[in-house]
Amino acid sequence: MKTHFFKVVQTVAQHGSFSEAAAILGCSQSNISYAIKEVEDFFEKRLFIRSRTGCSLTPEGKV
């Protein structure tokens, strides 16, 4: 797993939005989604609760 994926997780968690994290990190929302999926697949845990208004960390994601 690429170490910059953890920066993506941190940025999404801080801002509660994949699209806002993408703007801050200077990449596309699809890149953010890919990175989050890779981390979730690696740990076999869902890290974010996604909704139309943004996202928040699951209990596992807070760890």
UniProtKB/TrEMBL annotation:
Report the residue ranges that make up the HTH lysR-type domain in this protein. 1-58
- Range of residues in the leader sequence: none
Q: Which UniProt keywords apply?
A: DNA-binding, Transcription, Transcription regulation
Keyword Protease attributed: no
Report whether Transcription shows up as a keyword of the record. yes
Q: State the family named in the UniProt similarity comment for this chain.
A: Belongs to the LysR transcriptional regulatory family.
* PANTHER family for this protein: HTH-TYPE TRANSCRIPTIONAL REGULATOR, HTH-TYPE TRANSCRIPTIONAL REGULATOR GLTR
- Can you name this protein? Regulatory protein, LysR
State the species of origin.
Pseudomonas amygdali pv. mori str. 301020
